[in-house]
Design a protein that fits this description.
The protein has about 110 residues and is mainly alpha-helical. It has a domain of about 50 residues. The chain contains three helices and no strands. The radius of gyration is 42 Å and the shape is elongated.
Length: about 110
Amino acid sequence: MEDRTGLDRVVFVPPAPPAPPARQPVYPTNRVRTTKYTLWNFVPKNLFLQFMRVANSYFLLMFILQTIPALNAWPVLTVRGTKNAMQWHAAAPCSWAPPPPHPCRRARA
């Protein structure tokens, strides 16, 4: 037998695959925005801020009631308004009179 020193067999090893690029951490930008609204949030944010006030919600409710023909809110508003006016007048019947003089001031001669 011949002496073989391992030269008759050649093993080809493919090159190692390239290493994946190192992932850079994603940091938030340092951009400062001083506006209250953007193009995308103007309508929802504005409506939210407007209807946080009770009076605006009341007027929206009245608008909705007036746009539905089957519902007429004027009789309800008239009765409630009359009742409130009568209670106010009974509680302060002399509210149109001038105020009394201040007790610490002397009357002018």
